[in-house]
Every structure is written in structure tokens, then in C-alpha cells.
Description:
alpha/beta; two-stranded antiparallel sheet
Amino acid sequence: xxxxxxxxxxxxxxxxxxxxxxxxxxxxxxxxxxxxxxxxxxxxxxxxxxxxxxxxxxxxxxxxxxxxxxxxxxxxxxxxxxxxxxxxxxxxxxxxxxxxxxxxxxxxxxxxxxxxxxxxxxxxxxxxxxxxxxxxxxxxxxxxxxxxxxxxxxxxxxxxxxxxxxxxxxxxxxxxxxxxxxxxxxxxxxxxxxxxxxxxxxxxxxxxxxxxxxxxxxxxxxxxxxxxxxxxxxxxxxxxxxxxxxxxxxxxxxxxxxxxxxxxxxxxxxxxxxxxxxxxxxxxxxxxxxxxxxxxxxxxxxxxxxxxxxxxxxxxxxxxxxxxxxxxxxxxxxxxxxxxxxxxxxxxxxxxxxxxxxxxxxxxxxxxxxxxxxxxxxxxxxxxxxxxxx
Length: 390
């Protein structure tokens, strides 16, 4: 018989991250993050009856669950790129609310950087040439080229400047400087961003996310499990998910991301407004992703993202909306499908565990509301999760 109950995040953790050239495997990073998240919650793996993972193994997440010693009765392997983990969190919350699971573990790990250094893969990851991609691949339409084209369209359409995009990278680095676990912490300027090597016009190197190794885990649980946890719960208030296109030719407007659908869904279901958010953790494989997601989540009007990101508004303590408070994929870590890291940072901020980068409200109290929004593919998918401390 189905039940109706709330779902909360009760455990979060990162594995070792950054430069891991010691032979550590992606499976080991999954296990390390999972153990740490369970320890964070104060729960035993025997209490986990739901499991979600993607990106590793021939039969993901069967292989990973077996490696972790889990035998889940609820499972999810949805894979929609960087948005995977927000979508999985939505599915897990629904399963918990429906009474299909009591404790669901989401886990990810990747040695993307180490694999390149060891020659196990190349720097250019191909998504293949089957299906709709066959009409774009012959023209060298790489992943970064797709994002660069979209950014250029926004510049043309709304007068956004490359310098405004560069501000996103500068402020992400400023937040990373407060995070001892961030891979890159040295402050940078707009001139530093603009003078770097051109990767895909208008993106220079610092407009693009770094490449690292690492993993993350998030444990969600039902209300009756929360009382057995050592951590204060962070409740899932509302979620939204959306997929838009595969081929760029089918994307109606390069200046609108799928967060324009997933975001309003999540806020409406949560019963809150964008302006009530104390912080936002947004997928930032490229600077343009942050800017357009801010617009599409409703933090500013369409076309006003450039002006919104100026004057330090994204910095912790900057007097605006703290965004990617750990430094994001541009400066902290980016081992691949980074969406799970957004949830970890949002929960840690709401629990007041972020030290020098801790966000506080105007009255000095801890933040109460946060949004995490992941983007997948080349703006092909989006998942948005609204979280509350109480």
C-alpha cells in the first residue's frame, strides 16, 4: 500500500578528488564516497534499499551495487549527462514518498583526468555517430563547439559581452579560494580569462571547466529513518526534470536552456520563488551555462544574465546570490557528470559545514533554502532540486 511521506538528504560526501595518479580506480572512488556518506548519516549499508548510479560498468548500476555489497530493491540508472544526479534525486524522493524505498544511495566516481594521463582514453570524448548525431559529427561539431555556438548566439541576441562571461569564471575562482578542497584556488582576473588560449570561440581555456578525478555520494531517506541519523535532515521540497533535443538543429532557441522548464516545475512544486533562494549550485562546464541557467531559473530576465553576473554578485559574501560556492566545475573539481557535487555542496551549506565559504543570510543566520540545477549533454537535459534546512 502506497504511503505519503517526506524525503530528506541525510548523508553527503566526496571521495578524494583532484589529481589521483596512484592507480585508484573509479570503482574505488564510488566505494570511498559511499562509505563516507553512510558515515556522515550514521547509517549502515544494510539499511540501504535503494541505489542509483550511472556512467560506470557494462550494466550500471548493477556492477557498482555489487562492488559496494548492496542488494537494492529499488534501482535507477537514468543517464542524461550532467543532469543525471538531480533527475535521480527526484526519482529517489518520489520512490521514498511512495513507500517504495526507505534509504536511497546515489553515487558517482570517475578517473577522467588520470585516464588521459595514463593513455587509457583521449582528451576528446566522442558521443558516437549513430542516430541524430550522424548529421553533425562529420562536420567536426564537438561538444565544446555546441556550447560555444550557443554562447555566441546569446552575445549577438542580447548584447552580452565576453567580459561578462569571464566574470563567471573570476567569481567561481574567488569562491574556490575559500575552499581548501578546490583544485584551483589562485585568484584570476577578467584579463587572465581573456588572454588565455582560445579553445572554441568565444571560449578561452578559463571559460571551460577543469578536468579532475573524484567522486561523490548522496543518501536520501524517509522520515522514519531520519530520526536514526546523526545529521540534521535537509528536506527535498520540490523537483523538476526536462529533456529538450539531441541534434542542435532541433533546438528551437540557443539562448534558452532546459532549466527554463525544470526550474519553474521545481519551484512550483516546492511552493517557493526563485528570489527566496539563499544560494544556487549550478552546472558550469562552461561560463555560459551559469549565465543562461540563472536566467532560466528566474533569477533575472532573459537577456539580463550578463548584467546580473557583474559586480561580484555570485561570490560568497558578495551581497547578491552566492553561486557555486565551492568553486564549481570551473575551479573546484569536474570529474565528468558533476551534478552530484552540486547536491553535496548545497546540503553542506544548508547544514552550516562550509567553513570560510559558508553562506549566511543578512541577519547572520544559516541559509534556509537552496537550489541545485544540473545540465546534461549540450543543453539537452536539466534536473532541478529545491532543498530546505527546516
